[in-house]
Amino acid sequence: MRHVIVLGGGACGLTAAYQLARAGCEVTVLERESRPGGLCGTHERSGFRFDFGGHRFLSRSPALEALVRELVGGDLLLRRRSSAVLYRGRRFRYPLELDEVVRKAGFVDGARALASYGAERARQLVAPAPDLSFRDWVTHRFGRVLYDAFFGPYTEKLWGISPSEISADWASQRISLLSLGDVALRLFGLRRGGSRSYARRYLYPRRGIGQIFERMAEETRALGGEVRLGAEVIGLSHSRGRVRRIAWRDGRGEHERACDAVISTVALPKVARMLGGRALPREVERSADRLRFRGIRLCNVLLDGPEVSPHTWMYVSSPEYAIARIQEPRHRSPEMAPPGCTSLMLELPCDPGSQRWTAPEETIYEQSMDELGRLGFSGLRARTREHFSSFVVEGYPIYHLDYRRDREKVLGFVGATENLVSCGRQGAFRYLFMDTAMEMGLAAADAILRGGRGDRISELRSGGGLIEAKALTA
Question: 391 to each of 26, 81, 317, 345, 361, how far by Cα in Å?
Fold first, then answer.
């Protein structure tokens, strides 16, 4: 029996722990939050349930889907996605469909967008320019008019830095390409139906995405594993290239325990610093300092009355609004709010410690209500039962221009510890979908069971292409 300690009880860490426990390993999970699931957790307030962000379950892996069905069984709902972009008082389907943009923007603005798109596509066919930044990638494929209207402002709001400082990788991994021929057919009514680049249907548990991981934690404990909540990792003791002991802090003080192997899903820079300490090589320290995460403050509003909109979520592209995305959890499951009620999750990207992050609850709520009113959603103050904020410290890994070099340097340093596997969104420093994080957990558990190092697990599903285009539920 080998003792494996898993750092982090999110999608990746808990999946790994569950797999190890099923194989008969002694396993301990250390999760700093008070509930399992990490970024995929769900919390309850006065009969309303809120996720930490926008989650759905889609997977290209039949084995992973079978695992999730085994855990939540009849509580897994098949839902239909409806998304929109709010821009200048108009509502556009998401993903953007250029024919709709042209029609709704009016003749002059629509013609400018179409001409800019066509001219840029022709220019790139004749003299292709390199795609270094997010701005390059989008402008070369959509034209400057669409970039300035939709992609640029939203991206800068989301990340807090100019799109010219963000790697083109972010665009290629997240944006579906348009076909000029397809746009023309749709404009003249010769082709109908929405874009097939994104899955419209998805799976979702009745009581929030965290239900998957709550069940996983229960099953791991039933198999003899430990899942310690409220446990923050504070140190790794290592010698001769192996981690020997893990130290953590919880409400009862500080603790330490020996281990045979470690699966870490905590932030990659933090793991490197704990391993290196004062002896951390200078170049690794510089790269670790450059690998940063964008935080999110969520203003959660509990409402009386019917649904606010027909959409699961709406993107707010205009830079004058602090809100980046509006989510209505009831569209994922009717059990996310009591009967006759609904709720909103308002995403406010910001850095921990910033003015928006530290602002009082009432200030954030009032500002958010003012913005919703300007966006056309009136009367919500009168319907509000209560409101509160939740915070995601390490929400999105920021893909700065040279992030690959910095990431590889830090991963190389961490990977030199032979019994440590670093994976998951934070541990691999990749903006992963939930299913890929879970697959990483399965792969990490398999590497531990086989006695392997798991060196390439951080690159799982990194071959490009949108998972949404190939999802089982598409």
Answer: 32, 25, 22, 12, 12
| 427 CB neighbour count, 10 Å cutoff | 30
Burial of 188 (0-12, 13-18, 19+ CB in 10 A): exposed
Report the DSSP beta bridge partners of residue 7: 30, 264
- The pLDDT value recorded for residue 403 is 97
The pLDDT tens digits of the residues spanning 304-353 come to 999 999 999 999 989 999 999 999 999 999 999 999 999 999 999 999 99
Average pLDDT of the chain?
90
15 residue type, one letter: T
Cβ contacts of 293 within 8 Å, gap of 6 or more: 267, 393, 394, 395, 396, 397, 398, 426
Pull the structure tokens for residue 158: 């989301």
Residue 297 carries which side chain, given as an amino acid letter? R
Q: How far is CA 337 from CA 201, 310, 378, 419, in A?
A: 21, 15, 20, 44
Burial class (CB in 10 A: 0-12, 13-18, 19+), 296: buried
Q: How far is CA 162 from the centre of its chain?
A: 20
pLDDT of residue 190: 44
How far apart CA 212 and CA 205 sit, in angstroms, is 7
Strands 90-93 and 83-87: antiparallel
Please identify which residue in the block is written with the tokens 């229960």: 218
Q: How far is CA 329 from CA 51, 332, 339, 425, in A?
A: 8, 5, 13, 23
Question: Across-strand partners of 245?
Answer: 237, 258
